[in-house]
């Protein structure tokens, strides 16, 4: 990426953050753009994402991942990003909230190799990468929030991760259009706490964040 491109990406990111009401420091914005640079570099060899242009990665990967930030708990927490792939939404959220502890889980070794390199270069001390199948993963403690971006349908997502949710925790699933059918298929052991409509600058597409909790 040349200087003109870098300036354009920085402007797109900064304007998008303002539109979403997110106040991130210059250093945080630089880390987000550095993440896009790493993704662009690795994508040429490993084909991590179908989106190959950095100028499209900013809205599709950075802003899309950060859109739910104001709808998630404000306090420090432990979050699990299931099927993290190349690190969305986990890495952008970790950059935006250094007080959170994030675990990025994926069974694909190629992708977790990239994730480990990214958190090393970006100096993200609050991120752990795990290479494992979600149903086999057995951490020492549960997570307060479990999220995913295009991992699976809601019922399957919850079935595979119920053992990973801490008491009083919630699932926060990133979806496209309002998932009426997926919600209707949820088991009676859980309930939908709420569904937030998200506006992502630069994306002409519906986005929703579905909050689900266990029935107490």
From TrEMBL:
A GO BP entry: methylation
Subcellular location: Cytoplasm
Known EC number: 2.1.1.170
Gene3D superfamilies listed in its UniProt record: Vaccinia Virus protein VP39 (3.40.50.150)
Ranges that cross the membrane: none
Binding residues annotated for S-adenosyl-L-methionine, in chain numbering: 83, 134-135, 149
Catalytic activity reported: guanosine(527) in 16S rRNA + S-adenosyl-L-methionine = N(7)-methylguanosine(527) in 16S rRNA + S-adenosyl-L-homocysteine
Coiled-coil portions: none
CDD domains tied to this protein: AdoMet_MTases
Main EC class the enzyme belongs to: transferase
Record's keyword terms, sorted: Cytoplasm, Methyltransferase, rRNA processing, S-adenosyl-L-methionine, Transferase
Major site of localization recorded for this protein: cytoplasm
One term of GO molecular function: methyltransferase activity
Top-level taxonomic group: Bacteria
Entry similarity comment: Belongs to the methyltransferase superfamily. RNA methyltransferase RsmG family.
NCBIfam families: rsmG_gidB (TIGR00138)
Record function comment: Specifically methylates the N7 position of guanine in position 527 of 16S rRNA.
Record protein name field: Ribosomal RNA small subunit methyltransferase G
UniProt organism field: Deefgea tanakiae
